[in-house]
Amino acid sequence: MKVRGEIADREVLVLIDSGATHNFISAQIVDQLGMELVDTGGYGVMMGTRKVEMGRGICRGVVLTIQGL
């Protein structure tokens, strides 16, 4: 399911996957909002397409608002 949300007063598109074990944010949004990225070392995430995407780190304390909540 896709919904619109906000992070730091910026509208973002949110993909809700009830079967996912983690949450992800695009590197472009992290860069544009000047969010702090904590280095976690290299790690890969296997997508549903079986392609492995490499993670850059963790953004802690991100507040995501969906429909004003």
From TrEMBL:
Q: Which Pfam families match?
A: RVP_2 (PF08284)
Which InterPro entries does the entry link to? Peptidase_aspartic_dom_sf
On the tree of life, the source organism's domain of life is Eukaryota
Report the Gene3D superfamilies cross-referenced here. Acid Proteases (2.40.70.10)
Protein name according to UniProt: Uncharacterized protein
